[in-house]
Amino acid sequence: MLFNSYAFIFVFLPITLILFFSLASLRLTRGSLAVLTLASLVFYAYWSWVYLPLLLISIVFNYLMGKRISKADRGSKLSQILLLVGIGVNLALLGYYKYAGFFISSINHFSHSNSPIPDIILPLGISFYTFTQTAYLVDTYRSEIQDSNYDLLTYSLFVTFFPHLIAGPILHHKDMIPQFQRLRNFVFSHENLMRGLTLFVLGLSKKLLIADNLSPWVAPIFDHSSHTTFSEAWVGTLSYAFQLYFDFSGYCDMAIGLGWMLNINLPANFNSPYKAISISDFWLRWHITLSNFLRDYLYIPLGANRLGEVRQYLNLMITMLLAGLWHGANWTFVVFGGLHGAYLCVDQWWRKQEISLPKWLAWSVTFVALLFSLVFFRAHTVGDAIALLQVMIGFKGIVLPFNPQGYFSVLTHFGVQLQEWSFFAYLPPPEEQSIGKLIGLLLVVTLLPNTLQIMEWVQPTWRWATVVGILSGFCFLSLNHVAEFLYFQF
User: Fold this and answer.
1) Cα–Cα distances in Å, from 356 out to 277, 360, 366?
2) Which InterPro entries does this one have (predicted)?
3) Where are the alpha helices (DSSP H) in 379-450?
4) What is the Cα–Cα distance from 322 to 126, expressed in whole angstroms?
5) What pTM was computed for the model?
6) Most buried among 52, 144, 228, 297, by the most CB within 10 A?
7) DSSP state of 118
């Protein structure tokens, strides 16, 4: 089920809220938790009930494994074996459903073999609930969990809580389970409902009114990567950067807003990443819960920066290569992760030189480097990405959308070609509007506050109600063109 659908907004969400708080008002808190858990399972099964048993088996297995690990002596051989078995089973499921076809096709390609590739449909959310439960097992092994306070119902809700289940954030037990046990969170709050609805509408507006409308400028460029012009390539890449930004941040806003409606605080997962002035700064702002997971459960256990400079760079590369592969079973994501690993290595080396750049220059270098990596993130193949980058760099000539007889004709003396907008075959008309809109979006993401910052100003006034009402109207008119969130595929 999609957040941006009539079924979710007008049927699923109202019924869930009414049942949850109705049972809570009767002090049937266990019933409220059961309703919320059942609603989350229905939310997941609405996409495809076939993979619901897989989710349930994963939950029961990890819950029982966590209990068994907690009963073993800390650091004992038994606890280590149990932890390895638990992590192994989780990664095996993820590896089969997400990477089996990728690995077999890669082996076929490099060995010129012809092994059959299984036709496997990727279960929604498997990356998120696998990482969430893996962290749970590791923390149980570290004795960071009071296991006696966790029952199967509460644990199941922690894993399946519908606002985060499909596309994150990656939840941590210490942040979430105490909230499901706090009695005051079962008391209906008009303020939380207002704040949650407002943030949900803001996130929905990002998705429907901005991100989805950028799609016509993205797909044609990446589908014809080797045949686009210089200007088209940059318009397509910038459009994808903003489409991903508003699509993912819109989902994060809606998830947090839904949590607020239920008196639950989900962790922030997005903090104006295009304002970053370094790649390290970017990963502190983009998909924050994934960055935290990779830091706490991969980078630090690998040794972080404690084993020397060379080992630190190696750990950064390993972490980011796996981060890239986590996003998808394609060599394009591996290259994306490798690029960011290299970026982080350069960033760490530069910091040690204690050389500072002007803020505008640091931002420019970071943003352009990010755009180059996003070409691999979106392209169908590594070859397509390289072809598009060659066009963007100017290896296939520079074509700008200006009148050849106009003020910019002097550029032709430097090898630049000038063509009217009608020359561009892969941008939908009116093509000239794309430049102005992209400049406007760039100013929005770099200069204006983000939605969570805006929420600090929201008050229950007629003015805010009018703004939210108008945005809601535009969104509801756009619901007839339902599009999945980009992060659903990850």
Assistant:
1) 11, 11, 14
2) Ac/AlaTfrase_AlgI/DltB (IPR024194), AlgI (IPR028362), MB_O-acyltransferase (IPR051085), MBOAT_fam (IPR004299)
3) 382-393, 432-447
4) 16
5) 0.90
6) 228
7) P
Joined together, the tokens standing for residue 290 give 């994934």
Among 243, 221, 237, 241, smallest CA distance to 427 is for 221
CA atoms of 300 and 181, how far apart (whole Å): 31
CA nearest 362: which of 271, 276, 446, 439? Answer: 276
Active-site residues, by number, are 327
Using CA atoms, how far residue 401 sits from 384, 416, 426, 476, in Å, is 23, 11, 13, 36
pLDDT digits 0-9 by tens, 231-249: 888 889 999 999 999 999 9
pLDDT in tens, 411-442: 554 556 666 554 455 666 555 567 788 899 99
Closest CA to 49 of 99, 118, 100, 123: 123
Distance of alpha carbon 9 from alpha carbon 370, whole angstroms: 35
Q: Take residue 292 and report the two structure tokens written for it.
A: 């935290």
Question: Residue 112 carries which DSSP code?
Answer: T
Residue 406: strand, helix, or coil = coil
CA dihedral (393, 396, 398, 400) positive or negative: negative
pLDDT in tens, 25-54: 999 999 999 999 999 999 999 877 888 999
Tell which residue, 488, 489, 478, has the closest CA to residue 207.
Answer: 478
Match 């020359």 to its residue by tokens: 423
Q: Where are the domains of the chain?
A: 6-188, 193-489
- The total of other beta-carbon atoms located within 10 Å of residue 95's CB is 15
Q: Which two tokens stand for residue 100?
A: 């089996």
Q: Is the dihedral of CA 385, 386, 392, 398 positive or negative?
A: negative
d(CA 129, CA 124): 10
Whether the bond between 163 and the residue before it is cis, its omega within 30 degrees of 0, is: no
Distance CA 343, CA 358 (A): 19
Q: Answer for the pair 155, 59: CB distance below 8 angstroms, yes or no.
A: yes
